[in-house]
Design goal:
two-stranded antiparallel ribbon, alpha/beta, Rossmann fold, 271 residues
Length: 271
């Protein structure tokens, strides 16, 4: 199952996958834990304030926007019509724009932070797409990027979502360094559960199946287990924030299921 499967058409999320994704994004431990981690990093770099604008590129079904809207102005950008429709149910409809270019986003150049979360693996020319969104950012604008890590974890779940790749640390670093940004943090994360997830992926590969519906691994465990996994995962926030505050560009872990980078758009005097 790949990018031409009905679940992913032309790189866009279908209605069938959109429903599965929306339910998981609200309840699944991975989404819950990731939100806590990214919110901790964002708050460290950009203290909350109602006048501060955070733009999420590829906002999917909008759960991140709803969460961030408690502390910031938010604006979502999403090319998939079903996903954009779901996202508009999470926030005010005018806070989600269905497009794949910053030219269609009127407030983009005043954004204080831009989030590109698990988007770049969906496009063939990741450097071109990343630059499309980085180049028009205002000087000093913050950037948070996440991608799936470790090609050894490749599975049918990646294929269902139309992924082109999983990233190694070195390649992800080179991708960020090719852009007009100052890199503040780059690290693996979802490291504590790495071996558990690798074992699950190995089993599913041998059995030619996935753990969740519609060719995904988005199985939602019983509430006690889901909560425990979310707590273990989100607990990584403290170590990542320490690395960010210390100005360390070394990865907090040697391996992980995902990668995260924080960067700042270079000022004109530094270009």
């Amino acid at each position: 199952m790949g990018a031409d499967d009905p679940l992913i058409a032309g790189g866009l999320m279908s209605q069938a996958l959109c429903g599965v994704h929306a339910q998981a994004a609200r309840r699944h431990w991975w989404f819950q834990g990731r939100r806590i981690i990214l919110r901790s990093l964002l708050a460290t770099l950009l203290p909350p304030g109602p006048e501060r604008l955070v733009v999420e590129v590829g906002c999917g079904t909008g759960e991140n926007l709803a969460w961030l809207s408690q502390d910031y102005q938010v604006l979502g950008v999403e090319p998939s019509p079903p996903a954009a429709g779901e996202a508009r149910n999470q926030v005010a409809p005018d806070r989600v724009i269905q497009t794949d270019t910053p030219d269609d986003v009127p407030d983009y150049q005043r954004a204080d932070a831009v989030l590109i979360l698990d988007v770049l693996e969906h496009v063939e020319e990741d450097a071109v797409v990343l630059n499309r969104w980085v180049a028009p950012m205002k000087d000093g604008c913050l950037l948070l990027v996440t991608v799936p890590a470790d090609p050894a974890l490749w599975s049918r779940h990646d294929e269902t979502y139309g992924h082109y790749r999983r990233y190694e640390l070195g390649g992800f670093r080179r991708l960020l360094e090719s852009q007009p940004v100052e890199l503040l943090l780059i690290s693996y994360f979802n490291a504590r559960l790495y071996w558990l997830i690798r074992a699950a992926r190995s089993i599913s590969y041998r059995l030619h199946r996935t753990w969740g519906p519609n060719g995904t691994d988005l199985w939602i465990p019983p509430s006690w287990l889901n909560g425990l996994l979310a707590k273990i995962f989100s607990g990584e926030a403290r170590r990542l924030v320490r690395c960010l505050r210390a100005g360390s560009r070394r990865s907090a872990w040697h391996r992980g299921v995902s990668l995260v980078a924080a960067a700042r758009r270079r000022y004109a005097a530094d270009k």
